[in-house]
């Protein structure tokens, strides 16, 4: 009979990887290694290859972790009397190990390198450690730093882009002695600093409170300059409250706040197989024909899935809502198995009006269930974003009065029900998504959809906009626009989806000269008039950073946009573009405006126009790339050569201290010989520029922004979101 | 403003045979320039309006008709071309 491989013995199967990545929704798997086996057994390496391949196929990184030297060496005893098999420092074979693995995985971007699990002072009874006798903690830390420098050189010589995880001192708890310095004041390249945190209350080593976490690993000096990562955290059922607080702390360090990334790149929880456990394990046993009793460790399953421990439930719920949701809905006062809450909120329910459900982890196929004691009505949202379900108009089939509303995902997961009172008539204004509710509404970044009351024709006459007689058309167009802004491949707005407030207004208006917000211009184009829009919003008690004015026309259907006019008196974030100084401002004097036809001409039109509107009149914006016209406004994404058809410069521009290359081939189509214009480098050759003529792309939904524009607009958005 | 779709371009050039593709490119470029000028230079925007109007009358007298023919064939909601979105 074939001997099970080390991988099989560890219970790692393709199904297990799928369970961890698909069901638990992890995107990084930390894999502890046995150094001796990796250096001596080809089958062990082949198993590593297989695990890495499976994880990568599911979309997850594998973090290779040097955990044990071998299965026999003991490094003293821990305080509870258990044998310690975790070595205190690397050894010469560790150099060989990382040289081997770095060379083996130099072309595998899904592999990350955790140099050494838990460096520490050898335990008092450690007879195996091959370390010098050092007197002070400072000497030990220097010794660990020298090992890190050596291992870094070995790995990066084989694999120049390898991302290294460097454990903190003292069993990986303490990052206060980092970053690892290099000669000349430099620091270790491509390094992430990693900490392990378990619940301790020992004086001088306490990890019980946020102040302790700030002290050991979350202090600003390191994380503001170098990414940090928690490579181990976990606990038993008695530590759930502590775990919940730590998880919230990690979430705060992971999310962009006030325009700044606090520096926590992520975490991996310990452990699937070892204590403290994330999943329940049991013991299997069998008596062989010769009478020998054989036992082995098993996993306990609930149907096809592994049963989480109580702490595992917390970790699983956290993975399911990271990084999108600002808070984890995990109710400790509920019975086990039902603590990870799938929690939703909703707009007021009014027939024929928008009905939006806010939450997290909505997946395609998610439906909304309305129920009363006598009836149930299923409604399929037209827009399904991870954080938002939108029904453009709540159907008349939904009963009036009090109903229970819940969300049901196709995998069977149901939300907590919420109680609503369904009204018969729609309102004028709907807050489709509230945005960052920690601030008053007036301070939140707001995108407003407005039904245009009237149009100024090319003859100067004022005519009612036919959209005002078609509420259904307005609602469907808003839904399409939201899908365009938050649900396409271009992820410009996605990281801020939870912070951006979205409001829509549809209200009857008299046709008076002050009311046309749009006017017809040449080329069958409609133009939004920014000062008029600003005055109209002020009169209605509304405000917005960007206002999309929806109109309908038989003759002028082409949409257009005007940039934001920032308030120069509000706080500014200075930036340099090719050595010239400009500013992003917190507030707008007049919003960016879009005249958007209902229905939009294409799935990308709302996003394309919003990108124009996000720019600022005098401090940089984004222009169309399908024309060669001379610049009127300062645009960051198009430049002109000295002569038509001349060589495209390699460097496009310097923005905020970073140099950006040009796109030498204009989306692969080539610049027309008569053109002087050229554009910034694409994010990837597969993703043509969203501001160019995307109709020529085989699949327009592939389009994205270029690198420079994406960075510029995100800086701008983050500055405004931070107000 | 977004570019004209290939169907729209074809229809405009078919109904306005006196115009060449490069005339349409020039018209589109002027339109983009006009939208930007409206933000900072009303006089220039007005001059561009006049130029566009003259160009429309001379080269694209049936532009609107051509576009309306294309729009009449389009569905009420935008289509999903190529691969589906990430939503």
Strand content of chain A: 15-25%
Structure class of chain A: alpha/beta
Radius of gyration of chain B: 15 Å
SSE ordering of chain B: HHHH
Ends apart, CA distance between termini of chain A? 68 Å
Low-confidence stretches of chain A: none
Describe what you observe in this structure.
The complex is a heterodimer of chains A (723) and B (87). Chain A has 723 residues and is α/β, with parallel strands linked by helices. Chain A is 23% helix and 24% strand. In chain A, the strands form 10 sheets. Chain A has a 7-stranded parallel sheet. In chain A, strands 20-24-21-27-33-28 form a 6-stranded mixed sheet, covered by helices on one side. In chain A, helix 2 (14-23) packs parallel to helix 4 (42-58). Chain A is globular. The model of chain A has no long low-confidence stretch (mean pLDDT 93). Chain B has 87 residues and is mostly helical. Chain B has helices at residues 6-15, 21-40, 42-59, 63-73. In chain B, helix 1 (6-15) crosses helix 4. The interface between A and B is large, with 62 and 45 residues.
What's this entry about, in short?
With 723 residues, chain A is α/β, with parallel strands linked by helices. In chain A, 23% of the residues lie in helices and 24% in strands.
